[in-house]
Amino acid sequence: MTTMMVAGVVVALIGMASCGSKSNNDAVEQMVETTEIEEVQPTPQVYHAAFLPTENTPDFVDAAEASVNAVVHIKTTIVRKTTTYNDFFGAFLEHLYGIPGQTQNNTMVAYGSGVVLSPDGYIVTNNHVVEGADAVEVTFNNKVIREATIVGTDPTSDLALIKVEGSDLDYLVFGDSDKVKVGEWVLAVGNPFNLTSTVTAGIVSAKARDISILGEGSNVESFIQTDAAVNRGNSGGALVNTRGELIGINAAIASHTGSYEGYSFAIPSNIVRKVVDDLLMYGETQRAYIGVSPKEMNAQLAEQAGMKDIKGVYVAGVTHNGAAEKAGIQQGDVLTRINGNDVNTVTQLLESVRQYRPGDEVKIQLVRNGHTENYKVRLLNESGSIEMVKRGESFYNSTFGLVLQPISQKDMKALGINGGLRIVEIRQGAFQGAGVEGFIITAVAGKSVASKTDLENALAGNRSRKTYIEGIYPNGMRMTFEYYN
User: Fold this and answer.
1) Domain ranges in the chain?
2) Which of 25, 92, 198, 303 has a CA between 20 and 30 Å from the CA of residue 163?
3) What mean pLDDT is predicted for residues 238-260?
4) Which of 73, 113, 128, 454 is the catalytic position?
5) pLDDT band at 70, cuts 50/70/90?
């Protein structure tokens, strides 16, 4: 501080000296001598922060150029039908009395983003972007607009696959989300606030985040958390690394206002790739189960398992005849790795399993009584088999004499149900002449049915000669039938 004051005085005095007398010059010389004495004192050392930009700072230009043309704007149109009381029983009233139901359409428009995955026009987005849509319109970065069809949806992971006609389209390639590191630079690419492709940058703040937004029945609550700015309209857009590889699909933000406040969340690319492949091959997501009741580790459980470190996932129980039990995994084991990847939270365990299908074999490393052991586990579906389920495949049930078909996601939404089997043909038996063509069976013997396997299990578990069949007609009228063996 002394040196700065002296220097200031020197400057001021020099300015005065330019028009002063000889006595003033003497004063200046005396002050300069004082200044020289003070300048020999040690000056403070300057320290540079370790995080200041260096020559190795990531360059986002190439990644951005590779991404913007592969990220599209999605506009969905939803026609909501409001009906009078008459329309609730419309089919019956029109048949009996010739009174058609009265309807009034209410059109809603929603917006989001999507990522092109192939040169022929397959695009992945969030399920909530296209859910219930009657029309889907895709706008590319070059302002070309194309109509899209919905190939398949998976509400449990909030993913959907749509398709436009095209060739030689720009697209992104998948990166390995398991290898993404906390602190790694990433870009979020999308169409916030209806703007054209917008790029924001940030770092990976955390992995395997469970933010409980997808509701019950979902085991995909394992998001990549980032601080790259994401806003409304970014849903379904790309999260890419500095190499331009797709490592996630942006799905949500943490906000009190509805706009970005610091954190956003993306579905890991390894889950995205698996769901997309399932929808392409089967029309439905194939969900694999390991068959354990997992529990977060703590110091007490680690001590109980003979472990020095608190890591892994505690097995609080195993499912009877499930994949884990069949492989030899026991209650009290601590699962530490799956196919070479560490699992230290329940969310990480579920994310790892979700990347596989029923019938796939995974290598499990666990700790039992302080000793590390390795097992091979063949994953099963929810029904305990390795059977794959294909959407829309009709099948014949000899017990009822019916040809049935699983209903679509669109029908589920329209009717407000979680699944069901539509009667498409009556071949023989008690249902002939009962007027149940098109009727959707939702439960048999008190158990929900949405697939061939569900129906077979419900019938096998019924010990009574009387079977209750619950369901709904396409016009919304619910009905219960009694079937006698």
Assistant:
1) 2-38, 58-285, 292-378, 395-484
2) 198
3) 81
4) 128
5) very high
- Active-site residue 320, yes or no? no
- Of residues 73, 113, 154, 158, which has the active-site annotation? 158
Catalytic residue status for 158: yes
Assigned CATH topology for domain 395-484:
Pdz3 Domain (2.30.42)
Quickly tell me which residue has 């596989």 as its tokens. Answer: 356
Burial-class residue 104 by CB neighbours within 10 Å (0-12, 13-18, 19+): exposed
> Which pLDDT score, from 0 to 100, does residue 453 have?
77
Domain 292-378: which CATH number of 2.30.42.10, 3.30.1490.100, 2.10.70.10, 1.10.10.10 = 2.30.42.10
pLDDT exceeds 50 at position 346: yes
How much is the pLDDT for 7?
36
* pLDDT surpassing 80 at residue 83: no
Instruction: Give CA–CA dist 467/405, Å, rounded.
Output: 20
| CATH placement of domain 58-285 | 2.40.10.120
Average pLDDT, the chain: 80
CA geometry: angle 20, 22, 27, nearest 5 deg: 85
- pTM of the full predicted structure? 0.68
Spacing of C-alpha 299 from chain mean position: 31
Q: Two tokens at 408?
A: 């679509």
Q: Could you report the per-residue pLDDT of 278-293, keeping only the tens digit for each?
A: 999 888 888 899 999 9
Write the burial class of residue 17 (CB in 10 Å: 0-12 exposed, 13-18 middle, 19+ buried).
middle
Catalytic site residue from 177, 197, 235, 352:
235
Assess whether the region 58-285 and the region 292-378 belong to the same CATH fold.
no
The model's confidence at residue 104, banded by pLDDT at 50, 70 and 90, is low
Q: 94-98, 294-298, 366-370 — which is least confidently predicted?
A: 94-98
